[in-house]
Task: structure prediction
Amino acid sequence: MSEKKYQIFISSTYTDLVEARDKIISTILTMYHFPIGMEMFSADDDEQWEVIRETIDQSDYYVLILGQRYGSLAADGRSYTEKEYDYAKSLGIPVLSFIRDPEMPTKPSERENDPEKIQKLLAFIEKAKGIKMCDFWKTPDDLAHKVSLALPKAFRRHPRIGWAKADKIASPEILEELASLSKENRLLRDELEKLRASVIERTPNLQVTLNKKSELAITFIKYSGYNKFDYPKELNIKEIGSHLLPYIDKEDIEEYNSNLPSQEEIDEYNQSKELGERIKQSGIDLFIDVRNFGSAKADNLYITISFPEEIMVLEKDEGQKLIDVKEPKIPKNPLKEAQRKYSKEHGMRNGVSSFLNMGSAIDLFGPRLHSYDNVLKDFNAFPVMSNIDRTASTTLKGNMIVLEIDDLLHTLERSFDEEYIFLPLCEGTFEVKVSIICEQYSKEETYIIPLTIDSNIVV
Result:
């Protein structure tokens, strides 16, 4: 019989595997080693995790028993059993896993019924199957037999410090050396924990603000419309007074009619002009700032800012094009030229309409573009950033702005100014969704920027 005794940590869910645990404990005691389990701890008490860790720290081997339950969850979303397993692996403690044969019948109380926990259990089983010392069991007696065979093999292949009686230690010098090594081991573990804590603490903390604010409140001007560009009516030679016919050719009328803008062109102009006027009245420059409040640099940032459909987001160049949209080109009206010639020949200056037999549908002076008051004079072209940042870029995809930044040092800020405008379309309370991904984040982080749009009527 070996003089060295080992402490063996038994990890499993409890209520469904009570008999299996008892069998293993009895087997280990029969082998003259020390089984230790978590029966004496409250699994849902985070403070007990420190006790569990210390117990695993002092154990020589780790035995994992998996049934068909995942178990209670710790604060990080893992079960306490999986958390214990991961911790033992991180310390390099030899792990033996025994997985219950899924074909064996079980009671309802011994099976997991939460779909999310079932998926986590399956993933945990796959993880446990990946180690060398893994086996499957059918009954508690079968499990005890396999444990009794596997442990001696682990003792030989992976010998550990274990425990021995003081009088069995070779000499005081060895005892002193062991005490020194034990102290050094504790100090190294303390240093390791400090390093782990410092690594965890040194993470970026990224925040996006719009127009220097974490909440937006903007004004929506209820647009009252403007006089649209009317579609000019084609000329009809049958509607022209006979006194003007000598001064006008049929070919001139046909050419005039063929060069008139189409209804689609005028509709497109009116839509662009209206949107341009809305931009003049309610368009707002969009300033985006990305700040790193954390203690570490952020690398390869990918940020999306999604605006609600009640907000229209445009690139500034596109907005300027809408403001500067040119009215459709109207060809020279041959009827006006005919009237001029007629008046010159007959010495007339006024009274043009009395010589026409056209009805109210014909306008001698051609189509009119109704005027409107310029709310903003000289709406200047949007400024262009002079310093192009090659390490960052922005893209507009529909109503979503995508920011890509190579890196951002802690306590620094990256600004994206005067590249976009946003135009409120109605009043109400809405949300802007911000999503942030970077190398240092374990998962995507999202949050909401509240948006309030108040109304203001312009007549």
In short: Residues 206-457 form a domain with the Immunoglobulin-like fold (CATH 2.60.40.10). The two ends are 101 Å apart (CA to CA).
